[in-house]
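Our working data are protein records whose layout never changes between entries. Instead of coordinates, the fold is spelled out as a row of discrete tokens. Here is such a record, shown just as it appears in the course material:
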Amino acid sequence: HDLKKGDYKFSQTETGEFNNRFTLQFAAAALGVDEFTNQENNLIISNDNDILKISANQIVKSVEVYDMLGRMILNRKPNKQSFNLSVNTVNKGSILVIQAQLENGAMVSKKMIKY
């Protein structure tokens, strides 16, 4: 009986020990979280000295970089899936907010610390 579909009900008519009354069965499916593996609006950002390396699974139409005070540091229209941005004017330890508009119109926002 699948316990997800409802409660198991039985009536016991005999007394005694029943060692094989129940079995436990497992599905062969692996554990996983689909929302992480099937993201269609994925944006990956890495920080290498004064360069932000940005890549996406589709074309990035525009990207804006802000500091924590809300000041725009960069505004670019790369129209590429992978590209680099120079952030040499930003101090180490600064928190940056990167907003990108993808080809499908989705807006993706990422936060990072410049190191």
